Amino acid sequence: MSERPLHEHIKELSLVLVEISDKVVDNYFHGLHAVNHQNDQGARKIKPIDYEIEKEEVELEERCLAFLAKQHPVAIDLRTIVTILMINDDLERINELSLHIINLMLDMSPEMLESYEFEKMGVHAGEMVKKSIKAFALKDSALADQVCAHDEEIDAMHRTIFNKATLLMKSHDAEVSPLIAALGISRYIKQIAAHASRIAQEVIYLVTGEIIHKELSD
Question: pTM to 2 decimals?
């Protein structure tokens, strides 16, 4: 590692994290759009991009750990590196969830996808991720608080889908498999929103030093 000032190394690692987040969110939005517009070929392109993102996430983690080992940062510098590592882990999980969501959606009819409004719910969760990363880039704890406030909206959407799907399952002629897929999609989107909230909480930790802990729900 060169003799550049610590803040330059940290700025560079922060920029890499933002670049990865842009790719994760773009990949997710691309998949949602492709599925909802019946572009199967476009939706399936997210798989190779997913592997590319995963490689970049691993490289960023290795760089952060090397920085910690060689530079021994303290105070805000240490909090920044720890926050980058935590957010990078959240982005890795969001990327995996995106792939699960798209795979399940590809097996559902356009009519069913429209009926459950997955695109609306999915876009809302994706925007939460974008806003949480913006809060990180700006070190804006107020913006991070806004992200956390949106979590309940996603929870409400999930409850609506859950109630609708489970009610239909009680019908004697119900096709259970697509209903189970619908529940899975809703749960995965809910988890993406939960990761966005956790990123926001990590930003609050970075800015204020306050640890806000919220368990990720299933």
Answer: 0.90
Which of 16, 139, 21, 18 has the alpha carbon at shortest distance from 67? 16
Provide block-wise average pLDDT over 10 residues at a time, the chain (218 residues).
74 97 93 77 71 93 95 91 97 94 87 90 97 97 95 95 94 88 96 97 92 61
Residue ranges of domains in the chain: 6-208
* Alpha-carbon span 55 to 135, nearest angstrom: 25
- Tell me, what's the pLDDT at 216? 59
Asked whether 212 and 205 are in contact (CB, 8 A), the reply is: yes
Query: Domain spanning 6-208: which CATH class is it, in words?
Result: mainly alpha
What pLDDT does 90 receive?
A: 97
Q: What is the pLDDT of residue 134?
A: 98
**Packing angle between helix 75-106 and helix 46-71, nearest 10 degrees?**
170
